[in-house]
Structures are given as C-alpha cells and as structure tokens.
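User: quick one, fold this
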Amino acid sequence: MFARTTGRLFSGTFKALFSNFEDFLRIAWAWYLLVAVLSVAGRLFAAQSVAVTAFTALVFLCASASISVAWHRNLLLREAPGPVNLKFGGRELRYAAKTLLITLCVVAASAIVGAILGAIGQMAGSRSILFGGLAIFFLFALPVVMRVFLILPATALDEKLGIAEAFRDSEGLGPPMAVAGIAVLLIAGALEYGLGSFVGVLGAGSLFGVVALFILSVALQIAVTALQIGVLTGGYYILRERQMAQGAGPPAAD
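Assistant:
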C-alpha cells in the first residue's frame, strides 16, 4: 500500500507538470519576475536593503500562495489560468495565512524539541544527541505535517476541511507524501548539480556560464515548486477519493 501510494503520488506529480507545463508557466512567470526585480533592487539600494528584503519576503509569500492556489485549481478543477497571474484576494490570503500558521507551529515545535535535546546533550557532554534527536524528530514529524498541509488544497478550492478531519481521513498518506516530496527535492538537487557542472565546463568564468546557470536554476526552481504543490494536490485527491468511498461526497475532478 505504501509503495503503491508513493508511486502514484510521485508519477502523478511529474505527469501533471509535463501535461500542463504551459499552464504553470502562465501561473508563475509574472510572480517570479516581480520577485527577481525586487531582489535586484535590494542589491542596488543597499541602504534600504532591510526594508526591501522585508517587502520582497512579503511579496514572495503572496506569490507562493497565488501560484499554489492557481495550480491546485488548474489540476483539480481544470481552471485555465490567464496570461498573467498576479491575483491575490481573499482565497489567496486565507491560503497564505494557513501556510504561515502551520509553518510557525512547526518552527516553534522544532525550537522546543531542539532546546530540550540541546540541554540533554550539554549535560551528557555530547552534541550528537542534539543532531540525532532532531533527525529522529523530523523523520516522524514530516509525515504528520504533510497530513496537516492537506487543508491547503481545500482552501484553494473553497472547500471545508478542518485539521482534525484531514488528519483522520489521511491515515497512511503522510509517509508516501513525505517520501515523494523528498524524492522530488533530491532529483532536482542532482539535476541542478549536474547541469551546473556541465555549464561550468563549457563556460567557466564567462558571461555565458553565469547567465546559463542562472536560467537553469530558475527553471529548476519553477519545476520544483510545481512538483511540491503537485504532491500536495495528489494527496488531497486521494483523501477525497477515500471520503467519496465512505459516502462523504465526490472528490475533486481528476
């Protein structure tokens, strides 16, 4: 069951991206361009770098929410994006707020666990307790967090799904989603390293090499964003399938 669900999430995520890549580019390009311009502005106006950085981070949060909402709706509702997607309304605001809230909860829990493990490690005179304990914590916490994150696609679709319901009906989905998400990151990292090495050999130190590496990095970042959202979308679809089988209503469109 674990292998089948993981394979379904992994293959389905790549299939969704390759089948709808043009749609994702329409969804993401304007936001990525805006963030890139603000990042350059932060470097040019070093005196106001803190303000520019804070504003860029806020725009990036809005961009992530807008891109995620549009991609969820494209995959699950077949909602076609317009040529420019700079939309940020109530739906995107709710998505961003829930994402930020869950992230802050995870950070707070990690800090508490880290502080406890650090104190134990200090008393025992071993730093390996801290690192080993945190590794075990994240190993068990990531599948739980992935199940909680299933409320986000529901938010994108304007559907009601509480944390308790998402956690209850997604039993067994956490580990496959976590493994699929990590696998996507590992593949992207390997590709970026390989392409970076190839470009470095062709144009080491040249303007061509710098520009080519930048373009490849942005392209991979866009692809990884789509794939990570796709894993979450796939998990949500499976959750709704289960609920439909139990008589809780139809799932989102395939």
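User: anything notable?
Assistant: Residues 250-254 have pLDDT under 50 and may be disordered.
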